[in-house]
Write a structure and sequence with these properties.
The chain has helices at residues 14-25, 39-43, 52-58, 69-82, 97-109, 122-128, 139-148, 164-192, 197-205, 212-222, 232-249, 254-268, 279-285; strands at residues 5-8, 29-31, 47-48, 61-64, 88-91, 113-116, 119-120, 131-136, 153-160. With 288 residues, it is α/β, with parallel strands linked by helices. The structure holds NADP nicotinamide-adenine-dinucleotide phosphate.
Length: 288
């Protein structure tokens, strides 16, 4: 019998991921706190669980894609009210590595299994079913999760025990932040120099200064389109987890600290839901 699959959290990322599972396996039970977000999947054939307890009861593997550490804990606490022993919980949310370790060990003690599997690839990757997944957990559980996640996977690899998926995601966010600053600083400088931004984006983006950020966020900056993508609030959440993890490792992350400081004013002004590419706006109004 194939495992019964469940999905909790049908937001920007979770919605399309659940859609890929449903199209591939033709059977999926879903739950979302705001019930209307499950309507489209329901119309495509997904079963709707009336509660997380019901979702836990209906599933052998439950994928979770919510927001912060405390959200994942809250969701899991309800899921286990209905779940059978040995149920595998796979968390795609980006949370603090230390919280993933704790959750994994609490679940193991209660007879459940846990894999942290944060993703990268953004909303476009989720829609295309082309996500990279950093997995942490026991080898057999990770292998089972990787097999089930094929419908939305570009690459999925085990990084080590529980929590190491989130540590890898932190390393990813540090690199993403550096590329974002490179793009926004370069284009805001070019703007003040009176250069043609489209030309600059093409020339620099195709050379040694190019990056995923140049390719995907460059056009957003040219169009002054601040719809996420990846929001400033989510980016700062991840940077907070990065800086906590860095302190625990005695690792220096000066670039991440600077980026967090530069994004803060935009969030304070009420633009937390803007794309991180809006860092360009903040840099443009800064003076030397
Ligand atoms: P989102 O669109 O805001 O969706 C969040 C989902 O979590 C919604 O379904 C929301 O339910 C649910 N949720 C939040 N707190 C909850 C709680 N306490 N109990 C039950 N449900 C709860 O966020 P997203 O962009 O999909 O991101 C999800 C996760 O993936 C985050 O950890 C994010 O950092 C990570 N991520 C995002 C991206 C990206 O580009 N967006 C890329 C990589 C990783 P409601 O519908 O009721 O609000």
């Amino acid at each position: 019998m194939p495992p019964r699959l469940g999905f909790a959290g049908l937001g920007v990322m979770g919605g399309p991921m659940a859609g890929h599972l449903l199209r591939h396996y033709r059977a999926l039970t879903v739950w979302n706190r705001t019930a209307s977000k499950a309507d489209e999947l329901h119309q495509s054939g997904a079963k709707i669980a009336g509660s997380l307890e019901e979702l836990g009861k209906a599933s052998d593997i439950v994928f979770i894609c919510v927001n912060r550490s405390e959200d994942v804990r809250e969701v899991v606490d309800s899921l286990i009210q209905g779940a059978s022993p040995n149920t595998l919980f796979v968390d795609h949310s980006t949370i603090a590595p230390a919280d993933a370790v704790l959750l994994g060990s609490d679940l193991e003690q209660s007879g459940f299994r846990f894999v942290d599997a944060p993703v990268t690839g953004g909303s476009m990757g989720a829609q295309a079913g082309q996500l990279t997944l950093f997995c942490g957990g026991p080898e057999e559980d990770v292998a089972e999760a990787i097999e089930a996640m094929v419908p939305y996977t570009k690459r999925a690899e085990r990084m080590g025990p529980c929590g190491s998926g989130q540590m890898a995601k932190m390393a990813n966010q540090i690199a993403v932040g550096g590329a974002l600053l490179g793009l926004c600083e370069s284009l805001s400088f070019a703007k003040k120099a009176g250069l043609n931004l489209a030309q600059i984006r093409n020339l620099i983006g195709g050379g040694a200064g190019g990056s995923w950020a140049f390719e995907h966020y460059g056009p957003k900056i040219l169009n002054e389109d601040w719809a996420p993508g990846f929001s400033i609030t989510n980016q700062r959440k991840d940077f907070g987890y990065c800086m906590d993890a860095a302190r625990s490792l005695d690792a220096a992350v000066p670039g991440t600290e600077l980026l967090d400081e530069l994004l803060k004013p935009l969030e304070d002004e009420g633009h937390g839901e803007w794309s991180t590419a809006a860092l360009y706006v903040h840099l443009l109004r800064q003076r030397a």
